[in-house]
Amino acid sequence: MRSSHGFDREVLLRRLVTAIVVAGLALALLELL
């Protein structure tokens, strides 16, 4: 059995962090506009 559970959790965390960063950049651009 492969321990892919930790890998999946890491992928989800990376997606969450990416989404937060993108949202932050979007808000920054809106404030500049």
Structural descriptors:
single chain; 33 residues; mainly alpha; 1 helix
Overall shape:
rod-shaped
Q: Helices and strands, in N-to-C order? A: H
Structural class estimated from helices and strands = mainly alpha
Question: What's the total count of β strands?
Answer: 0
What percent of residues are in strands?
under 5%
The low-confidence runs, each spanning 5 or more residues with pLDDT under 50, are none
Count of runs of 4 or more consecutive helical residues: 1
User: Considering DSSP H and I runs of 4 or more, what fraction of the residues is helical?
Assistant: over 70%
**Largest sheet: number of strands, sense, barrel closure:** none
The pLDDT mean sits at 89
Task: Report the end-to-end length measured between terminal Cα atoms.
Answer: 52 Å
Taking all Cα atoms into account, the compactness measure Rg is: 15 Å
Keywords: Membrane, Transmembrane, Transmembrane helix
Transmembrane segments: 12-30
Provide an overview of this structure:
The protein is built from 1 helix and no strands. By secondary structure, it is mostly helical. The model has no long low-confidence stretch (mean pLDDT 89). 88% of the residues lie in helices and 0% in strands.
In short:
By secondary structure, this protein is mainly α. Helix content is 88%, strand content 0%.
Topology:
Elements: H1 4-32
